[in-house]
Amino acid sequence: MAQEDSYKIEGKLANTVNGKLLLVANTDKGMLDIGEATVTNGVFEFTGRMPELTLVYLMPVKKNAVLAASFMLENANYTITMGANELIVESDGEAQKVWKEFYDLDKYLKQSQQQLDMQARANPPQLQRLQQEFKKIVAKVEADELTLIKKHNDSPVSAFVIASKLPQSLDEVKLAERYDALSEKAKATSYGKQIAADLEMMKKVAVGEIAPNFSAPLADGGVLSLHETKAKVKVVDFWASWCGPCRAENVNLIKIYKRYRPKGLEIISVSIDDNRQAWLSAIGQDGSDWKNVSDLKGGQSEIATAYSVKGIPCTFILDGENRIVAKNLRGKDLEKKIDEMLKKKK
Description:
single chain; alpha+beta; five-stranded mixed β-sheet; four-stranded mixed β-sheet; 15 strands
């Protein structure tokens, strides 16, 4: 039996399963191998000690092989058996039971997306309807997830789930709502502290705040200062030469810029490239004839960090006083907002 300060993982798979498995932990230092076991006639075992609750992956030694299972590892007993379509992980610890509730919700969302994608490919004219249907599913899943966070507000698993969404889908309003639902115990975990730090950064670029000033080299020479750039409306657009959706959005930005530049619009595209030639080539190929800047630090861009940019394309719409009016608008939504703001300026 696992002691209070150690874990034990017992695998009981099909008799024909043999080979070696790795136990890999998802840590703040990246993916770390924490154990290796030999599978003989479907039986294997891992033992060890975890200083903190951690998401782990069980996978074949060949790391490019299909992922076998993921679960929350704490100092408890685990049994892994073969299910119909996936490995089943059971534990006498509380964390895995809580994790399964969140996992099942996420699994439902992914399955729904796959089904709707198949329907869209089979019937393209129904794409818009299916997209609206998926938005409703996403909203329902987000609401159910918040309910689970409130239900398990004392669990570090809830803090982990929130922290794991930070790079993608949570704005400061949703993040604050979820963080506030956590107990002080959950907030004190490393995941809770990560959420608090990110929330503090995100609040600095919330709608209604003055956008952080920055100075950066222009593609055609010289240096641009955001606050010294005069315009009735500014769009700060984070992108990169290697980002397909960003390049596609440049087509929309060209139309918007041509129409509204004479009326007081300025676009400042901030590239998170680290290759100057790739950056300049993309500007030339796309015809992005507005102000383009980059510190050429790639993922370490200080400007992107100051704006809490977690994914691209990412846009901030500012008024003439550099106040953030809206975020992450694209296409027709962006054009509508710019038009509305410029009409107010008359």
